[in-house]
């Protein structure tokens, strides 16, 4: 008997309780849906509202009451007449409650800013306003990209005049590729040309700044 008691103490598992709905009062049910399996028996525990009680077979109800669960729905399948497998499947289902990370246990991360956010103010204040050469480069890039935008609108208007068929219009949009600024995959994902243009301007400015620094 003493050996059985020691083995039972070594096999103890923590059971995490939770709520159904609002977090009012003490935890009363399992925190999430869990499943345990042993042999052909499969037992699923589902959180239940407060006051439901233990909706389970007599054997699994005893195990659930000992574990401190007050309200739970159960669903079982397989050869539940095999009592050992049925009890172990319920035991394994209860042990699964400590294997899930619910949102309240997620660690908090401080997400850093993107390079565009970090360098935008620096580009505007210290570089762009104090460097005439950089201003000229910026205006040149902006004028070039605006010209591409105008050509794109002109092509689109010409196409709309030639055809009003909706399916042809969709095919035309899918076939447009301005490979000198972005790939076809960007169009297929619906990226706006304006946003891509701003990214190109910042990217080219950073390249130009590095070039100026290397020359100096």
From TrEMBL:
Residues 36-104 form the Small ribosomal subunit protein uS5 C-terminal domain. GO terms for molecular function: RNA binding; structural constituent of ribosome. The keyword Iron-sulfur does not apply. One of its GO terms (biological process) is translation. Keywords: Ribonucleoprotein, Ribosomal protein. The keyword Ribonucleoprotein applies. It comes from the Eukaryota. GO terms for cellular component: cytosolic small ribosomal subunit. Signal peptide: none annotated. Belongs to the universal ribosomal protein uS5 family. PANTHER family: 40S RIBOSOMAL PROTEIN S2, RIBOSOMAL S SUBUNIT. This is Small ribosomal subunit protein uS5.
């Amino acid at each position: 008997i003493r050996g059985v008691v020691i083995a039972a103490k070594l096999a103890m598992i923590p059971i995490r309780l939770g709520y159904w709905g609002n977090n009012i009062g003490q935890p009363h049910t399992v925190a999430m849906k869990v499943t345990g399996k042993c042999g052909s028996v499969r037992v699923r525990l589902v959180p239940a509202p407060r006051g439901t009680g233990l909706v389970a077979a007599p054997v699994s109800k005893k195990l659930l009451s000992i574990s401190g669960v007050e309200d739970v729905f159960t669903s079982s399948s397989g050869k539940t007449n095999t009592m050992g497998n049925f009890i172990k499947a319920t035991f394994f289902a209860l042990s699964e409650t400590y294997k899930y990370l619910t949102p309240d246990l997620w660690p908090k991360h401080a997400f850093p800013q993107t390079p565009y956010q970090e360098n935008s103010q620096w580009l505007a204040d210290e570089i762009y306003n104090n460097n005439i050469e950089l201003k000229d480069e910026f205006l040149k890039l902006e004028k070039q990209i605006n010209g591409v935008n105008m050509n794109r609108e002109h092509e689109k208007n010409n196409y709309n005049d030639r055809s009003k068929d909706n399916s042809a219009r969709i095919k035309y949009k899918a076939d447009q590729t301005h490979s000198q600024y972005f790939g076809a995959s960007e169009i297929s994902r619906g990226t706006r040309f304006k946003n891509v243009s701003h990214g190109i301007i910042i990217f080219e400015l950073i390249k130009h700044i590095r070039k100026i620094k290397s020359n100096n």
